Amino acid sequence: MKKALNTLPAAPDDAYEEIMNRIKNAGRYSQGTAFRTLAWICHAARPLQMDELREALAVHEAWLDKE
After folding, report:
1. Are 41 and 53 in contact (CB under 8 A)?
2. Would 50 be classed as within a structural domain?
3. How far apart are CA 40 and CA 56, in angstroms?
4. Could you tell me if residue 2 is inside a domain?
5. pTM, entire model
6. What total number of domains does the chain contain?
7. What is the Cα–Cα distance from 25 to 19, expressed in whole angstroms?
8. For residue 59, pLDDT beyond 70
């Protein structure tokens, strides 16, 4: 845990760049899920609770399984 804390980005902009790079390097399905999740969070009328976000992701994945 200490090692992980020592490798945290120094600034919010650095964290943002690291996250975006990880998303861009993910597979197409993971990339789409990550960007849709960010959109849900950013466009929510209020801050989402973790269980609400989990439910939204579960419904989305169940929908994809039916295609």
Report:
1. yes
2. yes
3. 9
4. no
5. 0.57
6. 1
7. 10
8. no
